[in-house]
Each structure stands twice: as C-alpha cells, then as structure tokens.
Amino acid sequence: MLRLPSFTYLQPRTLKQALQWKKDAGLAGMYVAGGTDLYPNMKRRHQEPKVVVSLAGIPALRKGSAERRTGGTAERGLVLGPGMTLAEIVGHRKIRKRYPVVARGAELISTPLLRNMGTLGGNLCLDTRCTYYNQSYEWRKAIDFCMKKDGAICWVAPASPRCWAVQSSDLAPVMVALGAEFLLVGPDGERAVPAGAFYANDGMAYLTKRPDEVVAEIRLPATNGWDATYHKLRRRGSFDFPVLGVAAWVRWDGDTVADARIVLGGVASWPQAVAEAADAVRGSRLEPDPVDAAAGAAFRPSKPMDNTDFGLAWRKEMTRVYVRRALEELRGRRPGKAS
Description:
By secondary structure, the protein is of the alpha+beta class. The chain has helices at 15-25, 38-43, 86-91, 93-98, 100-107, 112-115, 120-124, 137-142, 171-178, 195-198, 275-281, 288-299, 312-332, and strands at 8-10, 29-32, 51-54, 65-69, 76-80, 181-186, 189-194, 214-220, 226-233, 244-253, 256-265, 272-273. The protein has a five-stranded antiparallel sheet with strand order 4-5-8-6-7. Strands 9-10-11-12 form a four-stranded antiparallel sheet, sandwiched between helices. The protein has a three-stranded parallel sheet with strand order 1-3-2, covered by helices on one side. The radius of gyration is 20 Å and the shape is globular. The mean pLDDT is 95.
C-alpha cells in the first residue's frame, strides 16, 4: 500500500488567507482542491510538499454560477467557481442547458465517486501524464528516474532536451475551444488569462500559472450563435484518462460556419489547437469534403508518443476519425437543418 508522506495541512476560510499561508510556506507549500490528483502523486513521491493549503473551505471558490456581460453585448456569459465539483458541473441545470459541452466533458472524467471529489479548477490544472512517470517511487528508481521527477532524461525521447508527458485533462481542450478565460489571483494581484494562453507545450512547465497563484474564476463566453462538442478516446468506457480528446467549436452565421476551433487533447503536453483544421471548415456548411479536409489537417500535426495507452499509428489515425465524428455531430445540429 502506498502511503502519504508527512505534511502539514492548512484549511483557510478566505482566498486572502490561502495566499498568505502559501506565501509563508514558500516552495515547500502547494495548494490542493479535491485532492484526486495531488494526493496520489504525493503517494508516488511525484510531489512532496511539506505544507498543503486546502482551497476546499473557501466559499468564494465554490460559487455555482454568475452571469456576466461579454464583448459589450446584451448576451451574457457565465462565471464558474473553480471549487465546483465535477459532479456539480454535470448536474448544473444552467450549464447543461447553455454549455452542454462543459457538462459532457466533466461527465466523461473518471468515476462518479471521484467526480464527487474532483473539482473544475483541479481538472484544468491536472498534472501531465506519462507511462514512465506515473509509477511508484521504486519502479521509477529501477529505471533511474525520468526528467520530470528526480532524473535527467526523458525516457519517451531520450535525445530530447524537454519532457514529453502529455496533457491529460478533459476540460482543458474544451475551455480552449470555447475561448474561455481564467481569472488568476496571487500575492501581486489578479490577472485574466485566455484558456489558450494558460497552457504551455512542456511536460514539466505545463502551466503559465505561477505556483503561488490560484484560479479564482472560469469565465465562459456568451452563447451567441456557437455550438461545440467533445469526443474522448480511452480504453475503457469509464475511469480512464484520455489518450485522445477532440473539442470542436463552430460559430454559425445562418447555416454557414463563420468561425471554428479544433483542439486536440492527449497527444501533446498542452491542448493543441489546429488552425489549419479550423480553416478547412470556415465558410462551409460542414459538408463531407471540408470535414474530411479538417480531419486530415488535424491528423498531420497529431504526434502521439509512446507514453500512454494503445499503439502510436492507431492513435494517430484516430485523430482523423474523432475530428470527423465531432464535426459530423455539429453538422447534425446545424441551424435550419431539416429534421
């Protein structure tokens, strides 16, 4: 049985108090929300904080939703609290009605038990994963560790100067595709960061969030003429992390695609937006030819590596298949389409 190391647990009641306690702890401190990612990592000695500052008891981070105006229009977006559990996201009436892709992405994460514990903010900040990293301390020691923790080499690509652990969040590609915005609060104040700029293509430094900052709000854009979906590939129908995620977003002008975003998860260290795939469907009605072109455009930069489940060639081919499926689903909901 893997056991947690010794640590001091602090439970602040306000965000200001949490920021101060984390500042006092310095590099020895880490934040925790639901703990479904951090605590298993601590058991495997991936992270070894001496002080854990819990965000679970801060009411401001657990607020359900609030309306917000976006872009100076009458159309309102939605603000979600990062402390909302994934189960709350799944069951939230307003989210299911106005942002079903967010509820769907949350519903595909893990199991009901862990969705009751895991949080929206925690999933967005989820650690990157790798076959050579997500093992016990003894297993990793036997291969001389890896670059991401205690070692100097990436066992996925030994000649590479960087870590290739993959982004493993289901909601991260969804938020990037939607064009969501995150409010970060730290000791030096607050800043708003687009979801697309929140992630970095590096298996170790995978977030642009500073360690002393907290995600305080997730801001969803107004639902003005757009539709989105998320498709996930995994070995089992529940519990597994994605080996491929495809988030597709389109904004309709009548029955024509005025704008689009295609974002891949699970094939790189960040949610990978493929501009060429989006370009292929702009101006179309998602007919078979532009959909096939978008699927081919997403296939080319998709570079799954030998650090998650399934074979490389098959996983790469599934990029084409899943992008096509996602766009075909959106075509089926095209405005004005005859039933």
